[in-house]
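Audit log entry. Action: structure prediction of a protein-small molecule complex. Ligand: zinc ion. The ligand was supplied as SMILES and no pocket hint was given, so placement is left entirely to the predictor. Protonation state taken as written. Sequence taken verbatim from the request; no trimming, no tag removal. Recorded inputs:
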Amino acid sequence: MRNDPVQRLLLGHESFKRDYFSSEAELFATLAGGVHEPKALVISCCDARVVPDVILQAEPGDLFVMRNIAALVPPYGKGHHRAVGAAVEYAIMGLKVRHVIVCGHTMCGGLRALADGPVKLAAHMPSLAEWLADADHLYNRVRTSMKDASDDELVSHLAYESVPVQLENLLTYPAVTWALERDRIELHGWVYDLKNGALKAYEPESNAFIELDATGRPTVEFSVSPVR
Ligand SMILES: [Zn+2]
């Protein structure tokens, strides 16, 4: 019974309620009292290994999180992909978050699936194929520019290629441009590295990713800059 995954989850919840919930009683009472004032909207991947609240050590109530396969932001009004738009609009106009963060990650299975091509995926995962079709041009661009790269190198590079494109797509949302024009939000593009737990931030000025310390100062310049 102890190895049953659901049983383990329920035991985890029991421990959460007994220890964390009771020790943070004031915080949870505030949240239950109707306070919902997250500091940031985080758009990240569904990947079970990359949990925004954990890698940022955020408290309940801090982050408004929208997770989807490969942390994509489809351009505004695109087909059936309205879940991202709904989260973006509500976070900015309703919750008035000050920061919008797109957080991709290395070794992303969603980006790796692009290597198979949406057409091949469509046979058994049609919804996934349709979702990833938005990012297909990204894969083709990187494949062309990195002809000799292995699949692993390609997928790793794709994470850094994808984030700036998703930031550009955010600019197609009227709520985003409205808030930017009024200095109400800042956009951030990050990539989380599964191998060492590092977080690298995109710098539009240099079109490169840099590792930041807690004060926002760069610590390590990352040599791979997005292909343009
Ligand atoms: Zn992923």
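Audit: result stored. The pocket of zinc ion is lined by residues 45, 47, 70, 105, 108-110 (CB under 6 Å). The two ends are 53 Å apart (CA to CA).
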